[in-house]
Amino acid sequence: MLSTSSISDIRTQITETRPAGADVSIISMVCPEIAATARPGNFVNIKVNSSDQPLLRRPFCIHNVRGNTIDVMVKTVGRGTSLLCDSACGTPIMVLGPLGNAFGTDTGDFDTALLVSGGIGTAPMLFLEKSLAETGLAFHHLVGGRTRSDLLTRGLSNCSTATDDGSEGFHGNVVELLRDHLASQPPSSRIKVFACGPNPMLKALAGFCRDRGIPCELSLESIMGCGVGICYGCMVELNNADGEKESILLCREGPIVDGNRFTS
Q: How far apart are CA 119 and CA 138, in angstroms?
């Protein structure tokens, strides 16, 4: 988790909302303190309006940073996200962040990053792509969805896609696409996988990478009412170093976890 000294609770307003796909929007807000210290994988907790309904803030990974502005990618799935996506420019909101840990892009154990995502799981990948590009590391996106409309690739470069129904790209799921992609890579490649998406996809991906000895980091999702470990609403069960189950607070020890902890 980030030091609390680097976390800011900012009263700001929505500056832009633009569509990114079916029921998905990119929402922008000026948050200089958050933009200055955010890293790929971090998230923010947003109070979507000034009333007590909904009471809890909503967590969103940081999609992009542009100067003093941060973007989040939001899929309309309930009351809170509907309120946020329907808000007009100028709507006041409270934004807490940056929160959580970050993707391990500086570990030195890879020279090619494979960014694997499913559906709304592409949300943190633009920020990650930009960070990798700035350091000169090679990257390739593998983006999956049930059908063409689920593929959220806008703004991403160097992408391969997969759809369950074959409506675009590889006919199959994104883990099968990864298997095919790896077959085309030279044996000397040092690859690391960074992933975000629905839990069944991440669990299958983590097992695939474990069986092949490929380093893998996952961005997990949970309810995060406070974002700082007070409400205990984001408890998830993972494997510890001995292979036994343990519970963690995802907002404090995540949302990024080693794939080996999520394999069974």
A: 23
